[in-house]
Amino acid sequence: MIKIAILGYGTIGSGVVEVLNTNSESIAKRAGDGIEVKYILDLRDFPGDPMEDKVIHDYDVIANDPEVEVVVEAMGGVEPAYTFVKRALLAGKNVTTSNKALVAKHGAELIAIAKEQNINFLFEASVGGGIPIIRPLNSSLTADEIEEITGILNGTTNYILSKMTFEGLEFADVLKDAQSRGYAEADPTADVEGYDACRKIAILTSLVCGQQVDFEDIYTEGISKITADDIKYAKAMGLVIKLLATSRKTKEGYCAMVAPFMLSQQHPLYSVNDVFNAIFVHGNVLGDAMFYGSGAGKLPTASAVVADIVDIAKHLHKNILISWSSKKMDLVDKGRSESRFFVRSAEDKEKVQSLFGEVEFVEVPQISGEVGFLTGKMSEEEFEKKADGLNVIQRIRVV
Amino acid sequence: MIKIAILGYGTIGSGVVEVLNTNSESIAKRAGDGIEVKYILDLRDFPGDPMEDKVIHDYDVIANDPEVEVVVEAMGGVEPAYTFVKRALLAGKNVTTSNKALVAKHGAELIAIAKEQNINFLFEASVGGGIPIIRPLNSSLTADEIEEITGILNGTTNYILSKMTFEGLEFADVLKDAQSRGYAEADPTADVEGYDACRKIAILTSLVCGQQVDFEDIYTEGISKITADDIKYAKAMGLVIKLLATSRKTKEGYCAMVAPFMLSQQHPLYSVNDVFNAIFVHGNVLGDAMFYGSGAGKLPTASAVVADIVDIAKHLHKNILISWSSKKMDLVDKGRSESRFFVRSAEDKEKVQSLFGEVEFVEVPQISGEVGFLTGKMSEEEFEKKADGLNVIQRIRVV
Q1: In this complex, do B290 and A291 lie within 8 Å of one another by their Cβ atoms?
Q2: Residue of chain B whose alpha carbon sits nearest to that of A30
Q3: What number is the ipTM of this complex?
Q4: Which of A247, A269, A277, B141 is close enough to A205 for a disulfide, judged by CB 3.0 to 4.6 Å?
Q5: Which residue among A30, A131, A145 sits closest to B23, beta carbon to beta carbon?
Q6: Does residue A293 sit in helix, strand or coil?
Q7: How many CB atoms lie within 10 A of CB A23?
């Protein structure tokens, strides 16, 4: 029997218990041993809960119990998660976490400690919820140079944009609806401003390049300024607007960004709607691949955490190599990253052409008093320079 | 340096050499050691080829060379691949293969030998080409009971159906075009009649249930009888026709089938077009997931083979557990599997209703002298019984 301790008995922590109970037999078969929850650490008590007698309030009990081989960190936030996880690893206990903030900030260090201790620090659930992406990157896509990784990594914003697209609604109205359904938090900033997706693409980019990518270095733009009119323009061009978290390997280095993009129907992420997430990967020999599924939610996320527990059980006292050193990767300056731009401007067509040369104008019957157009491919820097003389209402990148 | 031997210097064998050369540095880093091709077994010589001096014609040289730690089987077909692979494993050499026929027929036995020898027999490329699916099933989706696995597993048929859909062409014309582009073989039977997809779903089902599923037991129907008129009906209903290879866990056991199906836009496989493949998975805690990419082609397939080599290098003398015993899994009789059916009949609506009760009739302006309709959900058995009195022109299952 492998004894585990769960830190945090919230949505994910209780999901882990539920998954372990629901599929106990098949999990034991795959892990090669049964999995038993010995402790649940939480500030609260859970009177009447079947796990009531496992709940403790003092982390020392877990850290000092040599029987505990796996610590499941499901508290969220950087502290005290970081302190607890580091202490567990230093005590020779394997760790799995669903905590993107922790992994983005301290992943490299925690991976290094696990390696030294010849144990494992796994974090499949920290990106893409239930979608297997960390393990495939680490152990399936090993023959490739990953040249691009682009994801719809936040379910809340994808739900909002899908709803705006299908129902023609404004951002603020859909946000309210999403909050009432529990798809958006009371303070939705981390989701709608792209901060959540930013941490996730920082993790993916670190894994792809094998070095530390600081999320603070990634240019991040949310969806709160996307309007129903923008969606109308997108529809007129046969495009959809998605919040993408993307990183590309260029000759100069890695470019990463989180921002709303317009996508054509040919793009594999085009039809990823509602709360679903997906990660598109382009490898230099593999070509295009995509991984799709539930990016959040109690059971899908817990499914990924428990898969980590099974992997840990199969690799007790054997470190699974994860290439992510603490050496910092300097990203290419955002100004050098290239794309096409869709622009709405209060100027007239002549002014636009005088600044941008030949562009494709886009007409939407219901919208007047402005001009919409699509530029050719150019760098961010070049775009900023050209758009400087223009009264810009909106600009959205196009892939 | 890890020394490998490649059996067969055709498309995939030469692809493996190309991938190893292209990404040699990153592959060595991930494998923990460099990979060197020591022998290439082929009946032919390759004068002028950079690998010319590695080419040998006698398998004994490989089997008897203790330096060779990994054998890459890229010959295809059951024999002599089976004899060679078995002999390699018994000699303590790890094996990776892209050969679905071999894996479907002898997978359980070869996995058991590898386990006894504490080495590995891996076969990521045998299903879905470059798409990581075998390894994710085996090591990522381990917290779940997989309740359904449904794939577009054959690129040739998906190309043909996509082309028929987008251009309104007949099967025979598109097949000719596919042959001229090299997307279909001179004898296209294995692809268009579903035999290729059948072997692949047999492999996936064996992995999901942990027992031997014989491909001969899987009901298999190809796409050669799909017509431009069928596509018109599908379009009228907002559906697309795809060749699906599917297996489901029901209360009575596993049901598996290969057949053309009509899919709605809500289905994640709806927008998988051209030569792309994708595998949809439903887990009892994960929910829906999908894996998408290049299901064939030299480099994508070789990418998966080389990923197996890397995994083998990381697990030298340590068996990676794969649950697939030789104990036979009896599939549920096809007659008990359930779906809706789309039917075209030469009878009139009254006759249809007298046999099927309430149905949804489908009209296509250009088609007359027949009636198209959609049944409710029923078993295959029940459908056959009801359709017995009907002059059926076509029937296609609907999911």
Answers
A1: yes
A2: B142
A3: 0.95
A4: A247
A5: A145
A6: strand
A7: 21
> Residues A243-278: pLDDT tens digits?
999 999 999 999 999 999 999 988 999 999 999 999
Which has the closest alpha carbon to B101: B240, B231, B199?
B199
Q: How far is CA A135 from CA A156, B137, B211, in A?
A: 24, 11, 25
Pairing of strands B240-250, B287-294: unpaired
pTM for the whole structure: 0.96
Which residue among the candidates B54, B93, B200, B298 is catalytic per the annotation?
B200
Residue B190, CB-side half-sphere exposure with 13 Å CA sphere: 13
Q: In chain A, what are the domains?
A: 2-129+298-314 (3.40.50.720), 143-293 (3.30.360.10), 337-398 (3.30.70.1150)
> Are residues B299 and A285, on separate chains, in Cβ contact within 8 Å?
yes
d(CA B105, CA B100): 8
Distance CA A182, CA A331 (A): 35
Instruction: Look at residue B389 and tell me whether its pLDDT is greater than 90.
Output: no
Alpha-carbon separation of residue A355 from A40, A342, A359, A390, B274 (angstroms) = 62, 14, 10, 8, 40
B31 part of contact set with chain A, CB < 8 Å: yes
Q: Is B294 on the interface with A (CB under 8 A)?
A: yes
Pairing state between β B371-374 and B338-345: antiparallel
By three-state DSSP, how is residue B150 classified? Answer: strand
Phi, psi of A104 (to 5 degrees): -60, -40
The span from the CA of A349 to the CA of B135, in Å, is 54
- The question of whether A318 is a catalytic residue gets the answer no
Query: Which token pair is A124?
Result: 């499949």
Phi, psi of B80 (to 5 degrees): -85, 10
SS3 A394: strand
Residue B169 burial (10 A CB sphere; 0-12, 13-18, 19+): middle
Query: Residue written as tokens 């081989």?
Result: A69
The per-residue b/e assignment along B208-230, b for 16 or more CB within 10 angstroms, e otherwise, is bbbbbbebebbbbbbbbebebbb
Query: Residue B214's pLDDT band (boundaries 50, 70, 90)?
Result: very high
Burial category of B375 from C-beta neighbours within 10 Å (exposed 0-12, middle 13-18, buried 19 and up): buried
E-strand ranges in B203-348 read 219-220, 240-250, 253-263, 276-283, 287-294, 338-345
A283–chain B Cβ distance below 8 A for any pair: yes
CB contact (8 A) between residue A285 and residue B304: no
Instruction: Using DSSP, state whether A319 is helix, strand or coil.
Output: coil
Distances in Å between the alpha carbon of A390 and those of A110, A347, A349, A384, A394? 48, 7, 11, 10, 11
User: Could you tell me where the DSSP H helices lie in chain B?
Assistant: 11-22, 24-31, 59-63, 81-90, 100-117, 134-139, 155-167, 171-180, 189-192, 195-209, 228-236, 298-314, 349-356, 380-387
Whole-number pLDDT of residue B372:
98
Q: What are phi and psi of A211, to 5 degrees?
A: -130, 175
Nearest in space to B296 (alpha carbons), one of B202, B204, B214, B185: B185
> What six digits make up the tokens of A289?
């691949």
User: How would residue B204 be classed by pLDDT, with cut points 50, 70 and 90?
Assistant: very high
Partners of A130 on chain B (C-beta within 8 Å) are 283, 286-287, 289
User: What are the tens digits of pLDDT across the range B337-385?
Assistant: 999 999 999 999 999 999 999 999 999 999 999 999 999 999 999 999 9
Do A121 and A111 form a contact (C-beta atoms < 8 A)?
yes
Considering just the CA atoms, what is the radius of gyration of chain A in Å? 23
What distance, in Å, lies between the first and last C-alpha atoms of chain B? 50
Residue type, B96: T
Do residues B131 and B272 touch, judged by C-beta distance below 8 A? no
Is the CB of residue A160 less than 8 Å from the CB of residue A180?
no
DSSP string, A26-41: HHHHHHTS-EEEEEEE
